[in-house]
């Protein structure tokens, strides 16, 4: 009998599947947070593998800000349908009413749509475990977050009071009202994600590939004018060959100039590039501890 | 940039060829042990830097920080990359286990980075639990220290097979071979004494880069590998695991329709093929593997480390927590073990208390006996101990409430490593490593008696039960219990009253009032009450029984529905005002320690079957209410 060493991707895959099965076994009402980005795409793909031939036994939840790229909405609906999963979309009604947008409201935009919206959605449906696609290599405060991350009834994360996590044994017990955020991709790096997408032929939003797109440069970020809600301040959108390394709300997500139109070319560009991934996101531009603070307040 | 890490030329010229190689990398998880003073952060920083895991924006920050707060003058201070412990402290961010990632041509690495001080023992144990290898850092100027011994002991305890003794800061002792050899001799003697048979010593300088990725000209006498060569080639645990007998713990039963029934889990050891005979434990039932189902098509074979779904040829019972094994080499099944327990909570272990024990996907109730001994983690001496405090390590007997399939930890981390969870707070309070079974299921014989408990109860024409009265001292438990018993006697019921004070004169006269003794007090009373219900009696008890977990423990000893929790609810002020026995006055003046309500907590029942508000009704009325409710 010839045995073989599992590759690093096979081991990461097995770990993520193991984690998902634990959650489904121990949580009363799990949900998968689905942001339509590449990490979400990988997470969804792993969920299909974990429970095959059953469809993943939980719904997908998209905490929508109404400001995502149009391509993202299209893929979101298609991916849920193909997986045979229920798709829940939550838009914070307060933010809808007040017309919160990234142009006029700065940090409030993230607070209300994402942080508050997420809490509302979890409370509304009574979810006690939510899968998220965050990785430990993204930034410092993530590096020490547990895979099963416990939240109080008011969704707070206490970095000083995290449960020790040994072997493959996860403590998912909690009192009524408390919940867990679970990160099956904790040990993946950006390169692992791309390699896996390539290897498994996973569909991702076309925005990750370079194409001619209308862009303006504002506050050092190259932004795509994705629809006519973008208030131009005398700028003239310029067609540039660009792609996105990370996807969020289109007015907050910086593009990079690129000619990479295939996955290998994207990986090639990523490997030869010299700036870290989150640089394209406006949310991290505050001080280093900002993410830790946001997470304590309930941000994913 | 070092050539061994990444061939930028290949990436630029033939990305497909590059991807092909990189998809076949293996993965090694390791832990670094040492403190900032040993150059641990500098070493990790260098590994990240050399493997190009640092981007330009991070590098710019690093260069700026190095000039501002670094310790290396104009040069880059690698330590700032990984921790900046000072900065973390300033911001009040916890020092904890952090995981870092880097990769070379051959492997991806996950580094568990934990602080080295004794108060972080639990963090190191956590990091070590998933590691294949440990790098023990020694400052060449200081030699083998207490912490070196502690780190080596913990790594060895957690079953790490590969130890690297990285003797660091060789540049600061002029690459002195004699000094290096002296450290090695001393360490070898220590390693032998605790059963470490093999380790790999490497003279390095994290700062200057000696023997990290390239062989150093400064240490021509070193004939071993560089650190990176070793990390890239050392045998993975996974390879060894594949050669052991097949075991898989069932996580989830997959039943999408009547035609498919699969058992999902991660293979802990060995390999499994279609057609092979398997056995399910603890039931012992056998079948053969019909399918190994995956989204990408069925497999013929699967190996340790893979998360799979197995289908059997026969419809045999199998559920979450059970273990599928090779039919010819099953695992043991037992309900009592000797284990090493590592305590991880601020609240000390309470021997006898019931905790959740989670081993793989299996959760059972378990009690930890008073430790046989505690280990001094600095000297490895055995000390007498009654309990285990935060970070303490001891050996104790664990008893579970049912049989569980297991392996000794030395054979399998998955089947021999467990966590303990507090039933009230749900915190992970301890970790355990099973040594061996003390009482094998096959040896337990329950003496079957001909006169059954139903027979006993039938002769008395009553349903046995335990009326468990709980409440503060002076709440009126004993008074009400006494009246209830009189009423039941008048109704021709066979009863027995177990009173807290009375029991402490006999059965429990060796016990005091510490938390641990209170737990044992209630456990014994529970066992006695259980025997009495077996004899068909209605048992009435009057104990403060302040902790929810012990009341739940007694409840779980009884047949379902036989335990009736009665909360004698008297506010503290009221009980203190009555102070029938004068105990509150003594407790307030400090003459009496651990007094419930004063300096020891009372955890009120959350949903008692009966609640008696003694400020609203007399003892007589309370007794009426209780008897009416129970004997309609």
Outline the fold blueprint.
The complex is a heterodimer of chains A (300) and B (632).
Chain A: H1 8-26, E1 30-33, H2 38-51, E2 60-63, H3 70-83, E3 87-90, H4 93-98, H5 102-105, H6 107-125, E4 129-131, H7 140-143, E5 148-151, E6 179-182, H8 190-200, E7 211-218, E8 221-224, E9 238-243, E10 256-257, H9 263-272, H10 290-296
Parallel strand pairs in A: 1-2, 1-4, 2-3, 4-6
Antiparallel strand pairs in A: 5-6, 7-8, 7-9, 9-10
Helix pairs in contact in A: 1-2, 2-8, 8-9
Chain B: H1 8-13, H2 15-22, E1 26-33, H3 40-50, H4 56-69, H5 79-82, H6 85-90, E2 98-103, E3 107-113, H7 121-128, E4 133-139, H8 146-157, E5 162-168, H9 177-193, E6 200-203, H10 227-233, H11 237-242, E7 247-249, E8 252-257, E9 260-269, E10 271-273, E11 277-281, E12 285-293, E13 301-303, E14 307-312, E15 323-326, E16 332-343, E17 354-359, E18 362-368, E19 373-375, E20 382-383, E21 393-406, H12 413-416, E22 417-421, E23 428-440, H13 453-460, E24 465-470, H14 477-490, E25 495-499, H15 500-503, H16 515-534, E26 538-542, H17 548-557, E27 563-569, H18 572-578, H19 583-588, E28 610-613, H20 619-630
Helix pairs in contact in B: 14-20, 16-17
């Amino acid at each position: 009998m010839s045995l073989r060493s599992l590759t690093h991707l096979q081991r990461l895959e097995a770990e993520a599947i193991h984690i998902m099965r634990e959650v489904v076994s121990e949580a009363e009402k799990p949900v998968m947070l689905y942001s339509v980005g590449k990490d979400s795409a990988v997470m969804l793909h792993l969920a299909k593998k974990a429970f095959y031939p059953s469809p993943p036994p939980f719904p997908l939840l998209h905490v929508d800000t109404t400001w995502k790229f149009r391509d993202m909405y299209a893929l979101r609906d298609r991916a849920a349908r193909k997986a045979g999963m229920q798709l829940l979309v939550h838009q914070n009604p307060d933010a809808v009413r007040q017309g919160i947008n990234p142009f006029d409201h700065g940090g409030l935009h993230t607070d209300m749509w994402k942080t508050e919206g997420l809490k509302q959605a979890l409370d509304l449906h009574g979810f006690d475990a939510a899968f998220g696609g965050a990785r430990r290599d993204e930034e410092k405060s993530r590096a020490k977050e547990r895979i099963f991350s416990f939240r109080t009834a008011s969704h707070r994360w206490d970095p000083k009071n995290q449960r020790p996590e040994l072997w493959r044994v996860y403590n998912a017990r909690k009192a009524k009202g408390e919940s867990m955020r679970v990160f099956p991709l904790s040990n993946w790096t950006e390169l692992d994600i791309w390699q896996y997408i390539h290897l498994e032929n996973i569909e991702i939003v076309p925005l990750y590939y370079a194409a001619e797109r209308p862009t303006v440069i504002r506050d050092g970020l190259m932004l795509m004018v994705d629809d006519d809600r973008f208030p131009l301040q005398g700028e003239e959108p310029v067609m540039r060959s660009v792609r996105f390394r990370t996807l969020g709300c289109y007015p907050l997500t910086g593009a990079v100039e690129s000619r990479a139109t295939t996955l290998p070319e994207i990986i090639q560009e990523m490997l030869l590039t010299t700036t870290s991934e989150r640089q394209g996101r406006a949310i991290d531009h505050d001080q280093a501890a900002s993410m830790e603070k946001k997470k304590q307040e309930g941000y994913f | 940039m070092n050539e061994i890490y990444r061939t930028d030329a290949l990436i630029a010229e033939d990305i497909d060829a590059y991807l092909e190689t990189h998809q076949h990398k293996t993965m090694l998880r390791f832990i670094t042990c040492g403190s900032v003073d040993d150059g641990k952060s500098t070493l990790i920083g260098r590994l990240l830097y050399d493997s190009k895991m640092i981007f330009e924006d991070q590098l710019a920050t690093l260069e700026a920080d190095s000039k501002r707060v670094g310790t290396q003058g104009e040069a880059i201070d690698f330590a700032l990359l990984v921790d900046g412990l000072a900065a973390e402290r300033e911001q009040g961010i916890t020092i904890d286990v952090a995981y870092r990632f880097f990769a070379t041509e051959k492997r991806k690495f996950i580094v568990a980075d934990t602080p080295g001080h004794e108060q972080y023992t639990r963090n190191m144990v956590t990091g070590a639990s998933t590691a294949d290898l440990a790098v023990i850092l020694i400052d060449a100027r200081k030699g083998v220290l207490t912490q070196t011994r502690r780190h080596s002991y913990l790594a060895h305890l957690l079953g790490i097979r590969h130890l690297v003794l990285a003797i660091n800061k060789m540049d600061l002792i002029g690459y002195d071979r004699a000094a290096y050899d002296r450290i090695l001799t001393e360490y070898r003697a220590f390693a032998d004494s605790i059963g470490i048979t093999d380790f790999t010593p490497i003279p390095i300088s994290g700062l200057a880069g000696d023997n990290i990725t390239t062989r150093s000209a400064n240490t021509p006498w070193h004939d071993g590998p560089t650190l990176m060569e070793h990390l890239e080639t050392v045998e993975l645990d996974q390879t060894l695991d594949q050669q052991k007998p097949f075991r898989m713990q069932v996580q989830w039963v997959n039943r999408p329709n009547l035609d498919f029934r699969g058992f999902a889990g991660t293979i802990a050891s060995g390999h499994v093929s279609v057609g092979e005979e398997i056995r399910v434990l603890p039931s012992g039932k056998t079948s053969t593997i019909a399918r190994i189902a995956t989204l990408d098509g069925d497999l013929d074979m699967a190996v340790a480390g893979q998360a799979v779904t197995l289908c059997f040829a026969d419809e045999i019972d199998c559920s979450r927590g059970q273990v599928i094994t090779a039919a010819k080499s099953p695992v043991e099944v037992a309900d009592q073990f000797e284990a090493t327990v590592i305590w991880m909570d601020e609240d000390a272990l309470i021997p006898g208390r019931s905790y959740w024990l989670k081993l793989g996907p299996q959760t059972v109730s378990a009690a930890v006996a008073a430790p046989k001994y505690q280990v001094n983690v600095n000297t490895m001496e055995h000390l007498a101990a009654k309990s285990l405090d935060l970070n303490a390590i001891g050996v104790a007997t664990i008893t579970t409430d049912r049989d569980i399939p297991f392996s000794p930890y030395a054979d399998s981390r998955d089947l021999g490593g467990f966590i303990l969870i507090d039933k009230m707070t749900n915190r992970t309070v301890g970790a355990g490593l099973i040594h061996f079974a003390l009482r094998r299921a096959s040896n337990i014989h329950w003496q079957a008696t001909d006169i059954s408990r139903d027979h006993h109860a039938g002769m008395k024409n009553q349903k046995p039960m335990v009326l468990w009265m709980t409440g503060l001292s002076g709440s009126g438990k004993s008074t009400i219990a006494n009246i209830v018993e009189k009423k039941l006697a008048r109704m021709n019921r066979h009863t027995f009253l177990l009173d807290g004070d009375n029991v402490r004169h006999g059965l429990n006269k060796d016990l005091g009032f510490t938390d641990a003794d209170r737990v044992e007090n209630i456990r014994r009373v529970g066992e006695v009450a259980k025997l009495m219900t077996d004899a068909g009696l209605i048992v009435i008890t009057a104990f403060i029984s302040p902790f929810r977990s012990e009341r739940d423990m007694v409840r779980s000893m009884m047949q379902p529905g036989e335990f009736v929790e009665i909360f004698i609810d008297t506010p503290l002020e009221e009980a203190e005002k009555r102070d029938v026995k004068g105990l509150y006055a003594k407790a307030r003046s400090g003459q009496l320690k651990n007094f419930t309500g004063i300096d020891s907590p009372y955890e009120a029942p959350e949903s008692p079957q009966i609640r008696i508000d003694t400020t609203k009704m007399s003892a007589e009325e309370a007794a009426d209410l209780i008897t009416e409710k129970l004997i309609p």
